[in-house]
Write a structure and sequence with these properties.
The structure holds two protein chains of two kinds. Chain A is 45% helix and 11% strand. Chain A is of the alpha+beta class. Chain A has a four-stranded mixed sheet with strand order 2-1-3-4, covered by helices on one side. In chain A, a hairpin with a 2-residue loop joins strand 3 and strand 4. In chain A, helix 1 (11-23) runs antiparallel to helix 2 (31-42) and helix 1 (11-23) packs parallel to helix 3. The longest helix of chain A is centred in the N-terminal third of the chain and has 13 residues, at 11-23. Chain A is elongated and about 50 Å long. Among the domains of chain B are: 3-125, Ubiquitin-like (UB roll), CATH 3.10.20.740; 143-216, 2-Layer Sandwich (Alpha-Beta Plaits); 279-336 and 424-579, Fe-only Hydrogenase (Larger Subunit), Chain L, domain 3 (3-Layer(aba) Sandwich). Chain B is globular. Classes of the chains: A alpha+beta, B alpha/beta. Chains A and B meet through helix 3 and helix 4 of A and strand 10 of B.
Chain lengths: 164, 589
């Protein structure tokens, strides 16, 4: 027999998610907007959260999951406090962003799509942030670092970690 | 007035006049042109529909239009000139099919859907003799074998019929497309296994799947082993709806009644006894009918707490549905087991004792139009010391395959009767296999028992037909009995939501999960979207009923004998123990 899914989210988070759904009138057509806000709130979209959203908007949980897996922006794994995105677009790539990526992986000891055990950093790649003039580009949180050199990486990561 | 809404166009060499709004696909049908389709399905008159226009198999050329147009989703316009078989169209269709084959396993010979596969038919029709795009990477897909459904997504062609049926027809919402591009697949919620979701095993996804991606869990090899095992006594119980469809597996027209041939075939296959679930359907009416009357009498005596409406509980997918989705309303459905389970319980007690057969030697096999029955047979509450009342269930299609394997010339078989004492049935048992049938059978008995009068007309026409939700009012000695019949789970959900909101004004409700009831069950020969097949089966159900000497369950002499010799009273202590069950909260949320 099936086990009941444990609700692991804190009550306050559940309440906030429900409020976001209410704010959008609980309309099925608002699904993507709701997912955006919920991810901004919680950092990622765990299964329980998707079930709450499905129930509130009156759409099957399978549909919510379908949308979450369709768009690369949405994630079901927790992101680090400082999400790192390395641009692998053409301009950045030819100016050596792959070497930056390797250096970050080496220093943090994580692979692309993973988060450091202390939850500080997560690592992703993307294709072009529209700042090709600054290539190669790495984003950490909202901050864009341009014209980066491999030797700058350790300093930047240490400074970012020290902000907490 | 009518003229104004008619549109005239040219399709190939034909001038066609059809109502405005008609799709090209349907307009072409009126002049005998059958444009090939794959993703499209429309079981007209029911809500089974999928028209995403995504596969592009049905493309046609329209003069003055640059691109080819999908005939399933393009409406007619005045003066349109359409070519359905130009060289360009034929080339395009072939390429579309070839591209599908490039990401499709090449194992048709051993595929469970071989010879019944719509993709295979297209490949034959388009005369594809080689696979020009083969040898590339194939997408990885999940496989799963549940007790009822077998899932092999490597064979999926993304028509999304299963998704439409699961969401729109059944409102269960388990299946959805996930991920994107080459990684797209249709998967149960959160890419889990069916067994970890609120899937009801109704199997309607299987009923509409054009390929071998979704099929039934096949128990025929296990059955062959048991049939040839000298230590086992194997008995068969075919469901009411099976006899109206089995003939289709052997090329007989839909609606052919093969009751007698099927009984002969079961014995020829090696079953020690060929009994009949129709017998147990009559038994169900005795139990459920009594329960209806008990609740009604309480209600009429002013009991405010009595749970009304009472709901039928024969359909195993419907039982799964309310256990998953309406755990707060589990007191409403009748506690009567389904006919198949009642049969198993009686066969392994009353009959086994009578015959001196130990329980573990007896194998009860149900032959069902249904896939959820396979799951139902395995429920823990239907086992005694781990031994199930019904050992396993095979579908109508599986029985067809077994008969073919055993070299039996089905069409020319002589007819025979079922064995006694679990084979005698009335017309009321026969109509269990169609939407409204359980209600009609119950009303025939409830009316006569409650009023003490003979029913003037046996036919309750208000509960017949394919309308999604039907209602009727029956005069029981001045008391107006209000009944409701729903088929498909989306209609059942409407009824249950109304009940939850306190807005349901009926005394008895019947629900069947499949469109049309069991005649449209997921274990039946594939209808391939042809509603005429379901209509023909429906007509056959009522013909069988009319041809019976006895048409009310309480008149069945073997049922009367069973109560006299063994059970005592309907809903009595022994019945309660053997023929009734209880329900569980299986909600996920």
């Amino acid at each position: 027999m099936k086990k009941k899914e444990e609700i692991k989210l804190a009550c306050t988070v559940v309440q906030q998610v429900e409020e976001i759904c209410d704010k959008h009138g609980n309309k099925p057509g608002e699904l993507i907007n709701v997912l955006h806000e919920c991810q901004a709130l919680h950092g990622y979209l765990p299964e329980e959260m998707q079930r709450i959203i499905a129930r509130k908007l009156g759409v099957p949980a399978s549909k919510v999951y379908g949308v979450v897996t369709f768009y690369s922006f949405f994630t079901m794994t927790p992101k680090g406090k400082h999400p790192i995105s390395v641009c692998l677009g053409t301009a950045c790539y030819v100016r050596g962003s792959e070497r930056l990526l390797e250096e970050i992986k080496r220093i943090l000891n994580i692979e692309v799509g993973e988060t450091t055990p202390d939850g500080k950093f997560s690592l992703d790649c993307l294709r072009c942030v529209g700042a090709c003039g600054l290539a190669p580009v790495v984003m950490i949180g909202e901050h864009v670092y341009g014209r980066l050199d491999v030797k700058d990486i350790r300093q930047i990561l240490e400074t970012t970690a020290a902000q907490d | 007035m009518e003229e104004k809404n008619m549109i005239t166009l040219t399709i190939d060499k034909h001038e066609v006049t059809v109502p405005a709004g008609t799709m090209l696909l349907d307009a072409a049908k009126t002049v005998g042109i059958s444009i090939p389709t794959l993703c499209h399905i429309d079981l007209e008159g029911t809500c089974v529909q999928n028209m995403p226009a995504s596969c592009r198999i049905c493309v046609v050329e329209i003069e003055g239009r640059r691109n080819l147009a999908p005939a399933c989703a393009t409406r007619v316009t005045p003066g349109m000139v359409v070519h359905t078989n130009s060289a360009r169209v034929i080339r395009a269709r072939k390429t579309v099919a070839e591209l599908m084959l490039s990401d499709h396993p090449n194992d048709c010979l051993t595929c469970p859907k071989c010879s019944d596969c719509e993709l295979q038919r297209l490949v034959m029709r388009f005369n594809i003799r080689q696979m020009p795009y083969n040898g590339g990477e194939q997408s990885e897909r999940k496989q799963e074998l549940t007790p009822a459904i077998s899932r092999n997504m490597e064979k999926c062609v993304y028509c999304r019929r299963c998704e439409s049926v699961c969401n729109n027809v059944q409102s269960v919402g388990v299946l959805s497309a996930i991920r994107r591009g080459f990684n797209t697949t249709i998967a149960p919620t959160f890419d889990k296994m069916f067994t970890d979701t609120n899937c009801t095993y109704c199997g309607q996804c299987v009923a509409v799947c054009p390929t071998g991606a979704l099929t039934e869990h096949d128990y025929t090899n296990q059955l062959m082993d048991d049939l040839t095992n000298p230590d086992k006594v194997v008995i068969a119980q075919p469901a009411p709806a099976v006899r109206f469809a089995l003939g289709e597996e052997f090329g007989m027209p839909a609606g052919t009644i093969v009751t007698g041939k099927m009984a002969t075939a079961l014995r020829d296959l090696g079953f020690d006894y060929a009994f009949d679930t129709d017998f147990a359907a009559d038994l169900t009416i005795m139990e459920e009918g009594t329960e209806i009357l008990q609740r009604l009498n309480k209600f009429l005596a002013g009991d405010k707490d009595v749970k009304l409406p009472i709901m039928t509980s024969c359909c195993p997918a419907w039982v799964n549905f309310y256990e998953h989705e309406f755990p707060d309303l589990l007191d409403y459905p009748s506690t009567a087991k389904s006919p198949a389970q009642m049969f198993g319980a009686v066969a392994k007690t009353y009959w086994a004792e009578k015959m001196g057969i130990p329980r573990e030697k007896l194998v009860v096999v149900s032959i069902m139009p249904c896939l959820a029955k396979k799951y139902e047979a395995g429920r823990d509450e239907f086992k005694v010391n781990g031994n199930p009342d019904v050992d396993y269930s095979i579908s109508t299609r599986e029985l067809g395959r077994l008969i073919k394997r055993a070299n039996i010339d089905f069409a020319n078989l002589p007819e025979s009767d079922f064995d006694s004492p679990l084979g005698e049935s009335t017309g009321a048992g026969a109509i269990f296999g169609i939407t409204g049938g359980v209600m009609e059978a119950a009303l025939r008995t409830v009316y006569e028992v409650h009023t003490g009068k003979t029913l003037p007309h046996l036919e309750f026409n208000d509960v017949r037909g394919f309308e999604g939700i039907k209602e009727a009012t029956i005069d029981l000695n001045g008391f107006e009995l209000k009944v409701c019949v729903a088929h498909t789970l989306s209609n059942a959900r409407k009824v249950m939501n109304a009940l939850r909101a306190g807005k349901l004004n009926y005394h008895v409700v019947e629900v069947m999960a499949c469109p049309g009831g069991c005649i449209g069950g997921a274990g039946q020969p594939y209808h391939h979207g042809n509603i005429e097949i379901l209509k023909a089966r429906a007509a056959a159900v009522y013909r069988e009923d009319e041809g019976k000497a006895l048409r009310k369950s309480h008149q069945n002499p073997d049922i009367q004998k069973l109560y006299k010799e063994f059970l005592g009273e309907p809903c009595g202590e022994k019945s309660h123990h053997l023929l009734h069950t209880h329900y569980f909260d299986k909600s996920i949320h």
